[in-house]
Amino acid sequence: MKENVICEKCGSVMGPIVPDKPVGSIGMECPKCGWGWATTYIEPKYEDETVYKVVLDRGSDATKENIKVIASIMNCNYLRAKEVIADAGFILAEGKAAEIEESTRLLLRSSIKYYIEPEWPY
Ligand SMILES: [Zn+2]
């Protein structure tokens, strides 16, 4: 456990500023008086130059929801996505970690089976 950081101005326990953007700020902020600091912070995955592939695995159900997710990842229409979902080994997305993460965020909410090549370290 980390020790609590105490605000220099008012003595309250400070909380971390959670980065909500790929390149954002990280630091501590006092919930009471707003005193704090932030530094620029870049997550390692946004500096990763590896090209990853999101590959469709066997056994994904062709449900409406799953097809919609695929259509959205591939930026294609519903019919095309419906063809793709039956096609194990199909590459759904290819790109650097930050782009792939966008796709996996959608996939995680679906029941689509997939894997990432090379191994996904994040
Ligand atoms: Zn304070």
Outline the low-pLDDT stretches: none
In total, the number of strands is 6
CATH architecture of the largest domain: 2-Layer Sandwich
Write down the CATH class of the largest domain.
Answer: Alpha Beta
Shape: elongated
- What small ligands are held by the chains? zinc ion
How would you state the average pLDDT, rounded?
A: 88
At the fold tier of CATH, the topology name of the largest domain is Ribosomal Protein L30, Chain: A
The number of domains is 2
Description:
This protein has three helices and six strands. It has 122 residues and is α+β, with helices and mostly antiparallel strands. It folds into two domains: 1-42, no CATH class; 46-117, Ribosomal Protein L30, Chain: A. Strands 1-2-3 form a three-stranded antiparallel β-sheet, with no helix packed on it. The protein has a three-stranded antiparallel β-sheet with strand order 5-4-6. It is elongated. It starts with 14 loop residues before the first strand and ends in a 5-residue tail after the last strand. The model has no long low-confidence stretch (mean pLDDT 88). The site of zinc ion has 8 residues, from loops.
